[in-house]
Amino acid sequence: MEINAETLQSFYDQGVELLWDIIPSLLYAILIYIVGKIIINKVVGTIKKIITNKASDPSLTNFLVSLASALLYILLFLTIAYVVGIPVTSFVAILGAAGLAIGLALQGSLSNFAGGVLILLFKPFKVDDVIEAQGHLGVVESIDILYTKMHTFDNKDIVIPNGALANSDIINMSNKPTRRTEFNVGVAYGTDLKKTKQIMQDVFAKDERIHRDPEPVVFFTSFGDSSLDLVARVWTDAANLWPVYFDNMEALKEAFEANDIEIPFPQRDVNHFYPEGKKED
Length: 281
Prior knowledge:
Layout: H1 5-54, H2 58-84, H3 88-105, H4 107-122, E1 130-133, E2 136-143, E3 147-152, E4 157-161, H5 162-166, E5 170-172, E6 178-187, H6 193-205, E7 217-223, E8 228-237, H7 241-258
Antiparallel strand pairs: 1-2, 1-5, 2-3, 3-4, 6-8, 7-8
């Protein structure tokens, strides 16, 4: 193509015409973006206030606010694309295909993400709770969208994927203000059970941390191989559970010794049988 004055004038005229066609759409797009951004900021602010008043968990608040903001911005950009003239259906199809590809590539992470949402929404436990889950017992340190972090009582850090955590049994030991602990003891055959029960009750009566309602109880449970087995059940504040258990186990031992109550240990009699008579040494 020969470039001359007429060609350049033609290019100029076409450019000006195209520009006049595009400028209104661009102005509308810019105006919609500015107005849309203002509206989104106000809507997100309102959502944040509502969620903050109803949910005390900062992680849940930040997650829901971010999710709402992302969805509103996607809607805004789809509106701008429609005004500019981009086929919205094609754009949505591209987003859907991209979302499907990303979802297939991140199946494990999406499972953890969904588990994190369920944990933050239904709150089976919270930070600083003592829980037992996935074979671990410890204190919850943080609840993130993908993982929950806890540390054990022997000072090990545990990171558990939320997907597995949300679909497994969780024992929360901090939800209730009181807990029951059990003392399983065995005494020798021939021991006076009534006397033994009274001694155990006297031990529990000396500990002010043990609740009187419900009162401590002691039951005879079974005839063991080497002992008469008893179980004592007492209630105390959740924070005192282990100190009450350890202190009273020691106190029971001392009380049994002071009252000559024998704590047996497994014994086995071995008899040698000689079908042809015992051989002389």
